[in-house]
Structures are given as structure tokens and as C-alpha cells.
Amino acid sequence: MKTTMIARIAMLLTLALAFAGFAFAEEATAAEGIYEESFSQWNPDAPALNALIDYVEDVTDPDSPNYIDEEDRIAVFDMDGTLMGELYPTYLEYYMLAWRILKDPDCQPDAEMLEVGRLLRDCALDNSFPEDMAMRHAVQAARAYSGMTLNEFADFVTRILIREVDGFEGMTYGECFYLPMVEVVDYLQGNGFTCYVCSGSDRFICRVFIEGMLDIPYNNIIGMDVQLEATEQGEDEGLNHTFSIGEDVVRTDRLLIKNLKTNKVLQIAQEIGQRPVLSFGNSSGDTSMHNYVIGNNPYRSMAFMLVADDDVRDYGNPEKGAALAEKWTAAGYQVVSMAKDWKTIYGEDVTKTGEFHWMEELAEDRVPVDADEIALGIANPWTNMTKEELEQVSGVPFGVPEGAEEIAYRWLESEALAEMQFTLDGDEYCARVKPAALEAGQLENISGMYYGWENEESVTISHCDGTIGQYQTGSEEWVELCQWYDIAPGLMYSLSVYTTGDPDGLDLAAVAQMVYVPTQGDAEPENASDIQYVMYLGTNDKDTNKPVYTQQEAMEKAREILIDHFGGYTIQEAFGGWIDGDTEYQEYTLVIHLSDTTEDAVHAAANELIAAFNQSSVLIQANPTTTEFYSAE
Fold first, then answer.
1. Disulfide: which of 278, 469, 517, 595 matches 397 by Cβ 3.0-4.6 Å?
2. Is 43 part of a structural domain of the chain?
3. Residue 42's closest CA among 187, 213, 212?
4. Alpha carbon 37 to chain centroid distance?
5. Pair (431, 471) in one structural domain
6. Residue of 162, 53, 87, 124 whose CA lies nearest to 338
């Protein structure tokens, strides 16, 4: 009897242990599953990740005393440095504004705006920004984008986002999300949390940036704000203006709020209307938001702080990161180490190059405009014109392709840039032309598009050399650009198109051929045969009064330039002299005779000769003449 009882007890104990082991194995398998299914970009032993998982499982368990109803499960995320990178070499919105001020022909900065643009450029690489840079940036950003409709601003942001990130290979600005944090957002949303972005960046930049990457609706985006107004509102207050059919909404230059520090708390309270239970950030600008979440909250709450301590895959600082980790832990925040906790940052196909082209890309020699013009709201320097008005002011005609619709013309006086916009077969085209002194084979990008062009190939438009390139801006969206240079009149052309069709089925060169109207070469210039141009080219340096080249070298250099501009020419050698004070100077001079050409073509060649020989000017005579090519009878 005793043996049987002992045997039964032993058997029961064995079964109990077996069931316990089975349950333990089930728990272990479930734990492994959550990492594989939800957090494949994280290291499973990351302390902050496991703290988050424990928290979510607790507050979503109906039997837990810490259970939170779904309508109260609210998480707020900073953007720059929390959801996306900010070290290439600085904030995305800083890069956008620097490019807008320093490079965008649609923006004409005054001295104050230009100073901020140059600070953004010059201080980024070593992070030597002035202490008030955040506010100075916000004020000038409001001014620089003033007058844009929301769609125009979204288009501007998109064109920046599809560029290759400086300092990395394999990633555009629009793809620079932290993949482990994308998993966090997805995981929380899958567990009934409503996620908000609360950023110091412009609200409308954030809206465009997250589109297609995070499933966070526009109305859950909080950020820096400017005053908006109706296009026909003028000086009237909104209460005194009735919005009419056909009006649009535009940005103004009036900054409402820079959403940092305590302003984040105030905006959350105002826009969300209740206290979040989770907060994610990466800097001191987020501590107020964190403290608002974890302090005096009726629900169990947590705050997480990312530390940029990875200097292998990103441009973080391990020493600074360690100090910050200690500081944030002491403040009661969970610390996420990018170096230790993440398997990847941007993806395995993205590599850090250690090279920045920031200074070269943003190099400029802009002259500030009158501040009163910007104060009066003249944000767009383009002038809308008729076809005839544009041809008169630019001197260059555009050809209109057969079937083109919605044709519009405009002129940018400061750049001498003429533009024609049109639609053709549902695609949007933009043609541009401006004077440019380039050498044979050179091209200048006047399109306003600066993408990493793919499938680039050489083309010939009429007699002009050029290129065509493509870039995919979305899953079904492409932009294609054709550029060509007419060396005789010295004119640079571009034709771009946005298409949702197959770009390989689009013959952009054929459209460019229809847009291009020759002003020299293929078309006979009006009265060209009635004028003979004579150019007197001195060869002494304007600064030293000494010859730039030997006489033989001077002749060869002039021939090299002239043959690129004209089908024929005649050069005569001459010698001149003059007295300056008590000093007599002698100069070897080239007298160049040109026929069957135009004034624009002569000026284009003169520009190149002046630069090559370092002259202040050249003397050009235009002599009426009658030309006959006579063959003996």
C-alpha cells in the first residue's frame, strides 16, 4: 500500500513537472515570437525594448490593475533623432531652409535671411551653431516659405526628400527612418495605442515626411506652426473675409510657435486634450514632454530617450552618448542605445561614407534683395506673362508641342530665366532657358531639380548636345529631365516631366525637339547676312598690363573658342599702344571678323574670350554690309 501511494505521488509530481516545463516552453516560444514578428530590427536583450513589451502587456491585460482603455492609450513621438536621423550632418529642416535660401531661384533672400542661410551651411559640419539658432531658423523659415500654398510647399518638401542623403550611400532623405522605431510605432498601434508626432520641425514638413512610411494621420501631427491665410484675404482678419470658390490657403511669414520644450506640453494639452501614457524623444527639447507624461499621470506611464552613440553605422558620439544615458536614467527615463540595442539603423543596404558634400552643394554668391520687398509679402519673384511678353523680355521663343494644354509662361528677372509649363497626355512638363557661358560639352542644371539621375544617356536636340536622365520618386511616379546647350547663342535649356506612366515609353527628346526653337544655326537669323561684326581683343592682362599668353598661344586660344561658337571666322593680328601717365604700353591685339551670325552669338563668344584673356571688355563693331559668295563663271 505504501509503495503504491509513493508511486502515485511520484507519478503526479512527474506529470506536474512535465506540465510546468511545457508551460515554460510555451512562454519562451511566445517571447521569441514577439521578437521575430514585431522587433526583428532590435537585439532581444535590449533593456528598453523589454521594458516596453512588459509595459504594453500589462496595460492591455483586462485583468491587470494597470489596465488602460484603448481611448486612453496615447503615445507621443518626437521626430528628428527619434523616428528619423538628424546627423547628416544636421536636421532635415535646417538643410531644407539652407537650400531654399542659398540655392532656390524661387527665393530671393534679404540680408537677414541670407545670414541665417549661411549660418546653417557653415556651422553644420562642426555643430557650431549660435545658441539662438533654433529660433532664428524658425523665424526665417516662416519668411522663406511665405506665399506658398500648402500643395506647393508639400511639393518643395518632396523634391528635397527624394535626394540622396549626404554622408550615406543607398538612402534618400525620405527613407532615413530608424527602422527599429518604425517597429515600435507599428507594435503600439497593433495593441490599440493612438500615436502622435510632436516635433520641433514644421508641422507640414512632418506631414509630408511620414506619408507612406508611418500610418499616422495628418491630424495626429503636431509641430512648429505659422499663420495661414486665404489667397484673397489681403489685410483683412479671417473674421472679416469670406472664403470664396477658387481660393486657396497659403503660408504667411508670421511664426505662431516653435514647438520645443514646454511648448510641446502646451500643444499636446491643447491639441490632444489629455495626457499621453508613453513618450519617446532624444534630447533636452523632449524632457518637458517626458515629464508631463510620467508626472502625476493617473495611468501607469513611461518615457523613452534615444541616445545617438553609434559612430560606425551613423554619426553618433559614444562618449557623449554614455554621459547622456546616465543623465536620462537618473531622470527616470528608459534609455535606448542605438549602438547596443539595434541590429540595424536604416537598413543593411545603407552605408555610412564619412564624406559630406554639404559645402560644395550649398556654395553660392547671392546678393541680398531689399528687405522691404519681403516685408511687403513679395515672396515669389516670378512674373507671369503671355507668350509674346516672355519672348520680348527674354529674346528666346518656346515651341509649343502639338496637343499641349494648360500652357503658362513666366519670367525670373534676377536669373534671366524663362519658363513654359504645360501638360501633354496627362503629364506635367516644365521647359526652361537662360543665357549661360559654357564650354563645349558642359551643362548647367537650370531645372531646379537635383536628383541622383539614373539611366543617364547622351542625346542631341537639333544640333545641340545634351543628356536625359530619370529618377523614380514613388512606386509609380517618375521624373525625367532633358538638358541641352546651344553653344552659338550661349543658351542653356531644360525640359522636365513628372509622369505616372512607363518612363521608357516616354520620348522626352522628341518633346524637347518640339520645344526648342533655334536662334542660331538651324534657323537663318534675321538680317544676319547684312551685318559684319568686328571684335578687337586685347591680350594684356587687365590687372598687370602684361601679356596673358605668347602671341602664338593667344592665337591658338582665340581659335579654340571661336570655332566652338561659329562656323567660320577671320583673325588679323594688330599691334596697338597707349600712354597711361608717364608709362607707354604696347599690346598685341587680335582683330576678329564675323559674318552670318547674330549679336547674341557674338556676345556669347565675347564672354568666353573676356574670361580667357582676363579683359575688362572687348570692342565690338557692327557694320552694315552686303555679302556675296561669288563663283567664277
1. 517
2. no
3. 187
4. 35
5. yes
6. 87
Q: Which residues contact 479 (CB under 8 A, 6 or more apart)?
A: 449, 451, 470, 471, 473, 496, 497, 498, 499
Q: Are residues 558 and 491 in the same domain?
A: no
Mean predicted confidence (pLDDT) in 291-320:
97
Domain coverage including residue 294: 71-352
Q: How confident is the model at residue 523 (pLDDT cuts 50, 70, 90)?
A: very low
Do 337 and 417 share a domain, yes or no? no
Residue 270, phi then psi, degrees to nearest 5: -75, -40
The verdict on 89 and 213 lying in the same domain is yes
Residues 270 and 336 in one domain: yes
Q: Where are the alpha helices (DSSP H) in 272-395?
A: 287-294, 318-330, 338-341, 358-361, 371-375, 387-394
Which of 5-9, 331-335, 362-366 has the highest mean predicted lDDT (pLDDT)? 331-335
The mean per-residue pLDDT over the stretch 265-277 comes to 97
Angle (nearest 5°) at CA 149 between 165 and 195: 60
Count: domains in the chain: 3
> 164 - beta bridge partners?
172
| Backbone torsion region of residue 88, taken as left when φ is above 0, otherwise alpha when ψ lies between -120 and 50, otherwise beta | beta
Look at residues 485, 464, 526, 461 and name the one whose alpha carbon lies nearest to residue 608: 485
Alpha-carbon distances of 625 from 529, 570, 594, 596, rounded to whole Å: 8, 16, 12, 11
Residue 371, φ and ψ in degrees, nearest 5: -60, -30
| pLDDT for res 524 | 41
Q: Which residue has the higher pLDDT, 182 or 20?
A: 182
Say how far apart CA 503 and CA 511 lie, in whole Å: 13
CATH of the domain at 120: 3.40.50.1000
The x, y and z cell numbers of residue 424, run together, are: 501633354
Query: How far, in Å, CA of 115 to CA of 361, rounded?
Result: 17
Which amino acid, 371? Answer: A
Report the pLDDT value the prediction gives residue 451, as an integer from 0 to 100. Answer: 63
* Contact criterion met (CB below 8 Å) for 621 and 505: no
Residues 290 and 334 in one domain: yes
Task: Give CA separation, 288 vs 79, 135, 231, 607, in Å.
Answer: 15, 18, 37, 60
Please tell me whether residue 132 adopts helix, strand or coil conformation: coil
Q: Which of 159, 150, 219, 216 is nearest to 188 (CA)?
A: 216
Which of 337, 352, 367 delimits the end of a domain? 352
Within a domain: 166 = yes
Among residues of the chain, what percentage have pLDDT more than 90?
55
Among 515, 545, 577, the domain boundary falls at 515
